[in-house]
UniProtKB/TrEMBL annotation:
WD repeats lie at residues 17-58, 103-138, 235-276. One of its GO terms (molecular function) is chromatin binding. SMART domains: WD40. This is WD repeat domain 82. Keywords: Nucleus, Repeat, Transcription, Transcription regulation, Transcription termination, WD repeat. InterPro entries: Swd2/WDR82, WD40/YVTN_repeat-like_dom_sf, WD40_PAC1, WD40_repeat_CS, WD40_repeat_dom_sf, WD40_rpt. SUPFAM superfamilies: WD40 repeat-like. It is found in: Nucleus. It holds the Pfam family WD40. The gene is twf2.
Length: 324
């Protein structure tokens, strides 16, 4: 089923999960779209089956805490940042709940964590004003960049380049094979004093870059020219909450939650708002993603809809959205 304005408008809440006792801070889909894993401020990792629409297993990271959880290319392993004791990144086997490897190096909280879409490389950005490149097979940092401000970072969909958003005013693009030579492109944007950049993502077709903030504004850039194509606003975020924005897998639409529990959807090409989804959520929608795979048949679409808007707030509720 093709995504259209009307299809998006027809989404409704289908299921609610209440597995957590505190805020869910992050979640991630497996690359095959069959499972999703969440991390929470209650130190738990909850694994969900997207096809069955139910929780499968709960693990805990009581000592170190857990945030920014990411699947590797194996559906039974994850990496995540720590929010207790230190700022080490940890590599965990979900099968036996054992750590495979530790990645020490950052001296302040990790704010960006992204797996390469093609291999075992991953990238991290921190409040210590560094970006580090890693390989799952080695505990040693494979590359280190000292920056002039707080970074956000992400890989492009082909895993050949990565983007670094620096100091909420500049986007730099690096070739992964020669990043030590500096960026091959730098885009300077007008600085907005009212908010800071909290995330950067490429669209799946590699043509667009999405910048999310802790304010009530999003920007879409042309990934080749750095030109701001659209600025999206009109959603509530008066308290400076970090709200995750996402593209749909076909790169057609951009969506974000808001502090009043609604989901706003825009057409990425035209910049027009096409949908406002109200799941009657009781708090801010901090995390929102679309299933990366299931969208070719009605059965598959139902389950991509089921995991469209995993809306997470302090009530620790995950809303799932289903197409009518």
């Amino acid at each position: 089923m093709k995504l259209t304005d009307n299809v998006l408008r027809s989404f409704r809440v289908a299921k609610v999960f209440r597995e957590n006792s505190d805020k869910i801070n992050c979640f991630d889909f497996s690359t095959n779209g069959e499972t999703i894993i969440s991390s929470s401020d209650d130190d738990s990792l909850v694994l969900y089956d997207c096809q069955e629409g139910k929780p499968k297993r709960t693990l805990y990271s009581k000592k170190y805490g857990v945030d920014l959880i990411r699947y590797t290319h194996a559906a039974n392993t994850v990496v995540y940042s720590s929010n207790k004791i230190d700022d080490t990144i940890r590599y965990l086997s979900l099968h036996d709940n054992k750590y495979i490897r530790y990645f020490p190096g950052h001296s302040k909280r990790v704010t960006s964590l992204c797996m390469s879409p093609v291999d075992d490389t991953f990238i991290s950005g921190s409040l210590d004003k560094t970006i580090r490149l890693w390989d799952l097979r080695s505990p040693n940092c494979q590359g280190l960049m000292h920056l002039q401000g707080k970074p956000v970072c992400s890989f492009d969909p082909e895993g050949l380049i990565f983007a670094a958003g620096i100091n909420s005013e500049m986007v730099k693009l690096y070739d992964l094979r020669s990043f030590d030579k500096g960026p091959f492109a730098t885009f300077k944007l007008q600085y907005d004093r009212t908010c800071e950049w909290t995330g950067i993502k490429f669209s799946n077709d590699g043509k667009l870059i999405l910048l999310s903030t802790n304010g009530a504004a999003l920007r879409i850039l042309d990934a080749f020219k750095g030109v701001v194509l659209h600025s999206f606003g009109g959603y509530n975020n008066s308290k400076g909450v970090t709200l995750e924005a996402s593209f749909t897998p076909d790169s057609q639409f951009v969506m974000i939650g808001s502090e009043d529990g609604k989901i706003h959807v825009w057409n990425a090409e035209s910049g027009m708002k096409v949908a406002l989804l109200d799941g009657k959520h009781t708090g801010p929608i901090c995390c929102l993603q679309f299933n990366p795979k299931y969208m070719t048949t009605l059965k598959m679409w139902v389950w991509i809809g089921t995991m469209l808007a995993n809306a997470v707030s302090r009530s620790s509720t995950i809303f799932t959205v289903l197409n009518n």
